[in-house]
Amino acid sequence: MRWLLLTTVLVAFPFLGGTASAAETSEHITVMSFNILRQAWQKSAPDWHEVRKADVIQTIQDKNPDFVGTQEENDKQMEDIIEALPAFREVPGRAVSGGILYLHEKWNLVDSGKKVFVRYEAGNSKDRYFIWGLFTEKLTNRMIYVYSNHLPHKKQATLFDRMKGMEQMANHAANRQHKNAPVILTGDFNSRSKSDTMCILTGATGTLPIQFIYAYQDVPVADVSYGIDHILALPGTTVVDSGVAASMKWNSGSDHPAVFAVIKPWFGYLSGYTDGSVRMQVTDPTATD
Question: For the chain, which domains are there?
Answer without folding.
Answer: 26-264 (3.60.10.10)
